[in-house]
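Notes to self after the call with IL:
- keep both proteins in one doc
- input above output, always
- annotate only the second one for now

Protein 1:
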Amino acid sequence: LLRRALALGLDPALPARDSIEPLRHALGHAATRPTAMAWLSEHIEGLAARAPKEQVGSWPTWVDGACSREDRARFVALFEARAARLDAGPRAYRQSLERIDHCLALRAAQEAPLNAFLANAS
């Protein structure tokens, strides 16, 4: 179902600005992010050709809620080289990567104490 919703972004019968919304939402949720990022990496050129130029530059911000090493690696692989070619892309990429890195650092700092607390709570 997710892949069908994402494919709406490529449907020429639909306005590109609106039909890409399922992708934005899927990238914003941990459960759907891996599938959405894999789909986006396969179809990014086709989507970019259809979407308004100013929207494409903001795509890295759609992933800045990521908070796993795997999602960070996918994010870098997908946007690092492309960001330089996008309007406002370099800034959006840097800011999103910084948010992802902050989340990873916070997770690393809190994971052990939280696990210890939970282990003693039961």
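Protein 2 (the one to annotate):
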Amino acid sequence: MQALDRYVYPHRLLHWLVAGAVLLSLASGLTLGFLGFEGTVDLMGKTLTNVLYGSHKTLGVLILLLMTLRVITRLAFAVPDYVPPLNRFERVVSTSVHHLLYLALIIMPLIGWTATASGGFPVEFFVWQLPGVIGKDEQLSEQLFMLHGWLGWTILVLVVLHMAGAIFHWKIKRDNVMKRMSLFD
């Protein structure tokens, strides 16, 4: 029997789809967070501001759906071994960052959805308006949006750590870690 040297293709594809959605979501979220609604309207106009908000919400729901599929593929298929094996420090850091990213990327859209609904705003997914998971509560909405923002910064840090680890293995250690998630042979 041949040793598995990479994740199954569906899991690898989901990884890269999530990565793209997360980067776009972080970019739109940071823009909206720094400028606020009025600042974004002043800079981009009301139409583009609404598109940016709608896109950010759509990306959040998409990330939630993709992460659900990632969890399913992670549980359903074997995880390839590291060849050569990681040392203890690398294994602890890698496992911690991966688990925290999974957790954050599932919790973040749920908090955003709840914050949006409790603020009385529409929860959009492309052209559809999704049901709110909670009734209007402006004080709760404000607290959840603040938590959503802090979690965004946390995800940004985790993404940077994840990318730094990938670059370390690719360019410095030159081991097979990058091959495990590569879409190409």
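Annotation: The two ends are 20 Å apart (CA to CA). Strands lie at 123-125, 128-130.
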